[in-house]
Write a structure and sequence with these properties.
Largest sheet: 5 strands, antiparallel
Order of helices and strands: EEEEEEE
Strand content: over 45%
Strand order of the largest sheet: 1-2-5-6-7
Radius of gyration: 26 Å
Shape: elongated
Number of helices: 0
Length: 165
């Protein structure tokens, strides 16, 4: 993570306009994921095909995977994995004591890889009638990405450098 922050003076810091600064940081985080679980709830699936040359909708050919299918619920564990995410954060840096700072800000994380891709069924497994009843993994068929946006509070201790002789 790379951080930028405005400088706050060491003397006269108790004056109200000198005890607030700005900070921003950005970078990449690596997460080691343990005990990942998923829960997929699909109430129903409706497949249809449109043929523009005949201006006709096909909805009843079950052999082709078209029609109404009842949903299914599933849950499970995905095992251990590694996730990389891009993170940005910005906010205010408050000086609350001589050597104590409070950072208050907003942050956003966005995943760069999909840690569940090797645990899901491929999309091609859902195109036949035999496989359509297994709808439980359709929620994960394309791409799972971590996205996180929150408010963050952080305390920081500052230890001034010793003066050089």
């Amino acid at each position: 993570m790379f951080q930028f922050q405005t400088k706050q003076p060491q003397e006269n810091w108790k004056e109200e306009y000198l005890n607030v600064g700005f900070y921003a940081l950005a970078g990449v985080k690596l997460h080691l994921l343990f005990g990942r679980t998923y829960d997929a709830n699909i109430t129903a699936l409706s497949n249809a095909a449109y043929y523009p040359e005949a201006d006709n909708w096909a909805v009843t050919q079950l052999f082709a995977g078209l029609g109404e299918f009842a949903g299914k619920n599933a849950d499970g564990k995905l095992g251990v994995g590694m996730l990389a995410s891009f993170a940005i954060e910005t906010g205010l840096k408050w000086r609350v004591g001589e050597n104590l700072y409070l950072y208050s800000g907003l942050f956003f994380d966005c995943g760069l890889n999909d840690p569940t891709k090797n645990k899901r069924e491929p999309v091609s497994n859902f195109v036949t009638v035999e496989n359509l009843p297994n709808l439980s993994l359709l929620a994960f068929y394309k791409h799972s990405v971590l996205m996180n946006a929150k408010i963050k509070l952080r305390l920081s201790l500052y230890r001034p450098p010793k003066s050089l002789p």
